[in-house]
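Service request form, structural biology core

Requester: graduate student, group of Dr. S.
Request type: structure prediction, single chain
Budget code: on file
Notes: please return the result as structure tokens.

Sequence provided:
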Amino acid sequence: MYIRWLATGTVTVALSAALGVAATRTRAAVELPATARVLPITGAERLPPRPSHEPIVLGDTMLGASGALRAHFASRAEVAALSLGDTAPSIVSWPVPGGVDGHPFTLLPTRPFRTKLGSWIDNYLLGYWPAERHRIRESAYANPSEFIEVTPANEDTYVSEHFRLRDFLTHDQSRVWPKYLVLREALLDKLELVLQDLAQHGIDTSHVVVLSGFRTPAYNLALGDASGRARESRHQYGDAADIIIDADGNGRMDDLNLDGRVDEGDVRVIERAVERVERRYPELSGGLGLYDAMGPHGPFAHIDVRGEVKRWTRNARSLAAADHTHAARVGGCYATGASAVLCVHVHRR
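Core staff response, request fulfilled:
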């Protein structure tokens, strides 16, 4: 995807953004004039601040395949190079003047992983990722590259049409600020695509609740898992969310299939939407966990963008007929692979 910055009709600055769906949405590059300066995604080259009267125009690819993204997580150097100069490290969010294609849009500066000291960033406890302690077997389990700083001033920022930044925070350390979050734009894009699909099939998706988004390794380990697989949870990498559709606002999953009950049949409706989205956007493939009523919120669905199709449930017959991976029993439930680590978890906020 590209940020196209048009200034006074003569200078074009193209900023490539690292979004998982870019391969399917990239536009043909335009021929730049000889005087043009190109800003790399790393932001390594800092350009001088633009005069305040020059408008910024961001390409609609920043909205993702869903068209519903409302924020981009940018390095501080990236934001500084765009417009704010040396003031960028002091801000926690920057609303883009004019938005993108008429939609409000925010740049959220990130902090590099190296700012983590031991288990902490500032006073916020994170714990240790697997790659910090031992050799990892897959690149998918490499340390996150950056953190989003969340404060009372920016926690209500919309990162997509349905979701705010605070929806994905770990449910601990309530009095500690700032908090730090890992969140992938590809996950937001997939969630919005699933909600769009549900809406097209007559489901009211006006209110969606994230029961669990990002989990720090320290919090995730505290949930408990005798097998040790909690250390591999995708929630630690910002690419997983447990959700319910709660349009009636009663705090529980809605009766999505209109059979008069709230049970596993309702998460099957979400399952079918996920299957349709992944067929259309294979680059957003990932895990899907179907959970029956395990708490006050009723059944819920785990959705992630781990990069390979995984399916799991506590009941083998809940898996879609379209799933040809032949789910096997994994630690108390049925799954398409041992990497479906949430299979044996009891869900907690």
